[in-house]
Structure to design on (135 residues):
């Protein structure tokens, strides 16, 4: 799988409900260095698998709205917002967080990632800034 396709398909997949998706997109030696609003996290394959299973307990649905997807060889940068429907409120979709991730792909899978995230809000200015540059 091409690096750009791998990254886009992973974030758009049902990885949070389907552990096989994690195996399909993430390299067995994957490392994610993640700066979130809750602090720094270094996650390997097993921690990412655990995280995906935790997400399935909290969210009925998780959707990535991708605004930017850039690639240069085996390096891919993606900018997106996750929208969620919670178990408690499955009828309302809410923005959860904004992300920018840079991934190195190896053997057709996501190998080494650097990610920054921030809690989303629903202000129109913030959501409008997430429109693709070409729109």
């Amino acid at each position: 799988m091409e690096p750009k396709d791998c990254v886009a398909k992973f974030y758009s997949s049902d990885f949070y409900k389907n552990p096989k998706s994690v195996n399909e997109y993430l390299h067995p030696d994957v490392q994610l260095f993640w700066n979130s609003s809750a602090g720094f996290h270094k996650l390997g394959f097993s921690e990412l698998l655990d995280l995906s299973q935790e997400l399935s307990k909290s969210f009925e649905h998780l959707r990535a709205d991708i605004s930017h997807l850039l690639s240069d060889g085996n390096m891919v940068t993606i900018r997106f917002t996750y929208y969620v429907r919670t178990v408690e409120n499955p009828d309302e979709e809410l923005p959860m967080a904004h992300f920018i991730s840079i991934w190195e792909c190896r053997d057709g899978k996501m190998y080494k990632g650097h990610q920054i995230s921030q809690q989303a809000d629903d202000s129109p200015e913030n959501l409008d800034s997430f429109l693709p540059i070409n729109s």
Summary: Strands lie at 26-36, 39-44, 59-72, 75-86, 94-106, 109-119. Residues 45-58 form the longest helix (14 residues).
